[in-house]
Amino acid sequence: MKAGWIVATLVALSATAAAVPPSALLKLEGVGPYYTLELPLAWQVQAGTADLRGLQLRNALGEPLPYAWADAAPAQQSVATGSVPVFKLPAPKPLKKKDGTDTPDDMPRGWVLDLRGVKGSVMEVALALPDSANGVWPVAVEASDDLTQWRAVRREVQLVALQQQGQRLDSTVLELGGVRAAYLRLRSLGNGPVPALTGAEVTTATIDWPQPALQWSEPIAPTGCDAQHCDYALPAVALEAVELLPHDANTVARVGWLVRGEVVPRQHGRHHRLGRHLHALRDKTPAPLPVAEPGWQPLAEGSVWWLRLPTGESRSPAQHLDGAVYTQLRLQVAGGVAQFGAQPPQLRIGVRARTLVMLARGAAPYRTAWVEPSTAAPAMTLAELMPARRGGDALPADRAVLQAGVAAMASPVLKAASVPAAEPTPSRAWLWGALVAGVALMAAMAWSLLKGQGKGAEKEAG
Questions:
Q1: pLDDT at 460 over 60
Q2: Who contacts 30 (Cβ-Cβ below 8 Å, separation ≥6)?
């Protein structure tokens, strides 16, 4: 019984060692204490999990170090101010004279601002009233995209322009909080007219979300093809984009992408829209794609090409996806895989660069380590890790770099669809040494135990 337990322990130790994700030493560049660490694609693939929840950073004493993910690029906001055209809003009906005839009422009952030339969201409007204006005018602020349907922005706001003994008190700036519209109407809520405007300036804000920088794999060959489709095995990474690589130039084909199995949703950042197809060379009646087999779900479709033209080469752009984890991808081809020629196409995958900020504490060397994801402490937010950092500040310029032995390793999945398991890296030599020593010790214990049991059996037989 004891011998069987020892053998089972040896097997478990071997399996655990083989399943340990990569561990690597970190080289710190700069004075710190905050360092930015970018994890290369090959390292993410070796980790085997998309969310990397089991990742820890440790110092020389093995103490865990705090860190925060910083994958999403901060939004960049630009503010601009400019004048817009102003149109007088006439009275709803003309005035009546004593003799019963109509008198045109030229005094405005409000204004319409033309915002069609404005980019971004309107944060505020500054109205310029004539110097002679003196009074308080309540107005309602409304927005429209077609001058027909209006929606309320502010139900009532007071415009103030008061003069007394050479002093002037103005309140003519309207805070709107980010309105997007083609037109803005300021409608008087009083019985009398409002003064004519001499001008209006709007302050707008534009927010730009930078597209994430992608790391691209080596070409991946299909695991198998038939007349209608090719299948590709992908690593467990958040797939942001895929690029198809025809083997022969002057190739155009209509394709569809399918996925199978449980789809793990993205773990970070914003969603792209799957409705963005490949730039298509389409006609009005495109060739139909093959019917999907049971278990496969459509992901995207479009056209891919590689053309050598007199003006130069033209290649179809990459297909941007939503950052979910797809481990099985199928390429369907209208008209069959033969549309690509004698050789099936390879593909490359684009993965968002995973970046974190760590706080160095204690003595070097520092290293990455792994624990069971279910027991791992959650990573901090950047605001928690860097309480003195202001929103919009750049990430720390000081860098933490994975040692070359691990940072440069090639993932087997990136070179081909199926290859033997990777050799242990130098950074894991200590683990394999400890495993060999443990195996030798337990083997000796097992041999001693079995020898003792054999002698006991001989004595009983005698």
A1: no
A2: 396, 397, 398, 399
Structure tokens at 12: 């478990």
Q: Are 355 and 39 in contact (CB under 8 A)?
A: yes
pLDDT tens, 241-279? 999 999 999 999 999 999 986 555 554 444 443 333 333
DSSP letter for 12, please.
Answer: H
Nearest to 377 by CA among 97, 66, 36, 88: 66
By the 10 Å C-beta count (0-12 exposed, 13-18 middle, 19+ buried), 93 is classed as exposed
Instruction: Report d(CA 304, CA 93) in Å as an integer.
Output: 62
> Could you report the per-residue pLDDT of 350-368, keeping only the tens digit for each?
988 889 999 999 999 999 9
Count of residues in the chain: 462
pTM across the whole model: 0.55
Q: CA 406, CA 229: separation in Å to the nearest integer?
A: 36
CATH of 77-208, one of 2.60.40.10, 3.40.50.970, 2.60.120.260, 3.10.25.10: 2.60.120.260
Assess contact for 400 and 31: CB atoms under 8 A. no
CATH class for the domain made up of 214-352: mainly beta
Query: CA 352 to CA 138: how far, in whole Å?
Result: 52
77-208 and 214-352 have identical folds: yes
CA 228 from centroid of its chain's CA atoms: 33
Provide the 8-state DSSP code for 325. B
SS3 42: helix
Distances (CA, A) of 198 to 135, 171, 194, 203: 16, 15, 12, 17
Q: Are 351 and 240 in contact (CB under 8 A)?
A: yes
Angle between helices 429-461 and 2-19 (to 10 degrees): 170
- Cα(86)–Cα(92) distance, integer angstroms: 18
Best CA proximity match to 411, nearest among 52, 43, 50: 43
- Taking CA 147 as the corner, what is the angle to CA 145 and CA 149, rounded to the nearest 5 degrees? 75
Cβ atoms of residues 260 and 324 within 8 Å: no
**43-55 confidence digits (pLDDT tens):** 777 776 777 888 8
Query: Residue 188's CB: how many other CB atoms inside 10 A?
Result: 20
- In this prediction, residues 403-427 reach a mean pLDDT of 42
Q: How many CB atoms lie within 10 A of CB 369?
A: 16
Domain extents in the chain: 23-71+354-424, 77-208, 214-352
